[in-house]
Design brief:
flagellum, cell projection, signal, 6-stranded antiparallel beta barrel, 7 helices, bacterial flagellum, periplasm, single chain
Length: about 375
């Protein structure tokens, strides 16, 4: 989001960023504490690769996994050297959604563990996925979808993307539901994505205005990041949380200016204000040009032809006019900076100087 033109500032104003804040649903700025995904991990084998698998000499764990798999299938491979290049050891990860039922399908990510060069065309063998408690919650298997590719010849190779990472959409079946039940909870804690005392108070007020029975409130802000809500007896937990999530509120945000010096991006929050300050900004350009000349000796002389240096130095100064910048909202501030014709790098330098002078009434975050 670059603030370079008055048209962009106008689009901010039309979107409501320059004036009053727009209403937002509670579920878009908060989440229910404890209702979250659960991370799963497993170790598996990918087969069917076209000579791009692990080198078993360099990846002994791949050979051990193959021997263990063959032993479980009743095939004895102990003591037999394996030289297959169509197998790769992989780590399989997935996120188990909250309250996912048995038989539900989830996506899995696959990444190579050994020295395989590509997983394209491979198939993941059945792989148990466990959580930190050691219990298996899902089982993954299926054809890999690889977006990267690699091609190599005798003297050159080409690699696009990451061919050693893959994904299997709906590649795992849930075998065990995540612990916890929603219908047994009588109270919930809403965790704010961007903690703020004002936002927490507004969320509690909106819930009480909609669901409070008589004069007894059911929601109360505990701190700047959480709101405790008691479930009404007449509503089940799922329906109640769905109704709470749809309630509109106007979140409050701290005044903040975020600067990314690498890309020259400047993002200014809606509540940023600048005290009246005079700013001058100009560009000093120094050009150094080398124009060497050749010195030729006279005919039949004993002199030598030499190259003599000749340097031209010019100095140009542009801009440097003094302007008064002050802003009570985003639109006024952006228009004031654009009126001075600044580039992103100039705006970054000016904002840093204004912050040092104490005129920027916001946090300046430099990335």
């Amino acid at each position: 989001m670059r603030i370079l033109s008055a048209a962009l500032a106008l689009s901010f104003a039309l979107a409501g960023l320059g004036g009053a804040g727009a209403a937002t649903r509670i579920k878009d700025v908060s989440s229910v504490e404890g209702v979250r995904d659960n991370q799963l991990i497993g170790y598996g084998l990918v087969i069917g690769l076209q000579g791009t698998g692990d080198t078993l000499r360099n990846s002994p764990f791949t050979e051990q996994a193959m021997q263990s798999m063959l032993d479980r299938m009743g095939i004895s491979a102990r003591g037999v050297p394996l030289r297959a290049r169509n197998v790769a050891a992989v780590a399989v990860t997935a996120n188990l959604p909250a309250f996912a039922g048995i038989g539900a399908r989830i996506d899995v990510n696959v990444a190579s563990l050994g020295d395989a060069t590509s997983l394209r065309g491979g198939t993941l063998l059945i792989t148990p996925l466990a959580s930190m408690d050691g219990k298996t919650y899902a089982v993954a298997q299926g054809q890999l979808a690889v977006t990267g590719l690699t091609a190599a010849g005798a003297a050159e190779s080409v690699t696009e993307g990451v061919p050693t990472g893959a994904r299997i959409p709906n590649g795992a079946l849930v075998e065990r539901p995540a612990p916890g039940r929603l219908d047994t909870l009588d109270s919930f804690v809403l965790a704010l994505d961007n903690p703020d005392f004002t936002t927490a108070s507004r969320i509690a007020d909106a819930i009480n205005a909609r669901f409070a029975e008589g004069k007894r409130p059911i929601a109360e802000e505990r701190d700047l990041g959480t709101v405790v809500v008691r479930r009404p007896a007449r509503l089940n937990a799922a329906r109640f949380l769905g109704m709470v999530g749809e309630l509109p509120i106007e979140p409050d945000t701290a005044a903040r200016v975020v600067v990314d010096q690498r890309s020259g991006t400047v993002v200014i929050g809606r509540n940023v204000q600048i005290s009246t300050v005079a700013v001058t900004q100009g560009n000093l350009t120094v050009r150094v040009t080398e124009n060497p000349v050749v010195s030729q000796p006279a005919p039949f002389s004993e002199g030598e032809t030499v190259v003599l240096p000749r340097t031209d130095v010019s100095v140009e100064s542009s801009g440097g006019h003094l302007a008064v910048v002050s802003g009570t909202d985003l639109e006024t501030l952006v228009q004031g900076l654009n009126r001075m014709g600044m580039r992103p790098t100039d705006i970054i330098a000016v904002l840093q100087a204004i912050k040092t002078a104490g005129a920027l009434q916001a946090d300046l975050v430099i990335q």
